[in-house]
Structure formats: C-alpha cells, structure tokens
Amino acid sequence: METKTPEQLALAKAVEIVGGQSALALALREWHPTIQQPHVAKWLKSPNGCPADYCPDIERLTKGQVTCEQLRPRVNWAVLRHTFTLRRSRRSLDATEEGVGAEASSCGAALMTGGVG
Description:
434 Repressor (Amino-terminal Domain), 6 helices, 2 domains
C-alpha cells in the first residue's frame, strides 16, 4: 500500500468536501478556466499535491476546512496572505482617492491661484 503525503491527504479531503474530482475542477474554473478533472487526478497522485496557485481557491471552496497551509506546507502563506491584504487595502484606498480626486484637484487649483476665500 502506498503512503500518502500530508499534501495528498489534504487535497483528497478537499475533493471529498467539494463532491469529487470533477466537481472540484468545475468549481475551480471560476478562477482557472482551463482546469479539468484529469488535472485534479494528477495532483492527487503527486507527492506535492496541487500547485500553490490553486490553494487559495480550494481553501475558499472548502470554506476553510482545508487550508493553503495543509495543501502546500512549504509555502510561506503568512507572507503571501499579508501581501494580498496590502494589495486589497491599496485598491480600496485608490478607489476612495478617485472618488475625492475631483474635489482635491479643484481645491488644489484654487489654493494655487489664490481663489479660496
């Protein structure tokens, strides 16, 4: 009998939670349009499990029952999660600045020309 790696066991749990290899592949197509059931079958046989770029989506699909850390323990997920949070915060900040950008520009122009009174 072949011993499974922790990565394979975590992926097998995700497959079970989502409802099978085909169901996981179909669900992953939302973010990865080319994914097919044979990809999932190949990952299940690989000692490393699935590629790291699929882990956040699998975690999301399993509602956190299978984490990125379980799927790919050698990846420094803390750093990647922090980077993602920073990017999302910057996008929110950029959107806020765009909303007040016109006001800020007109205020800046008025200040520069002495038109604020």
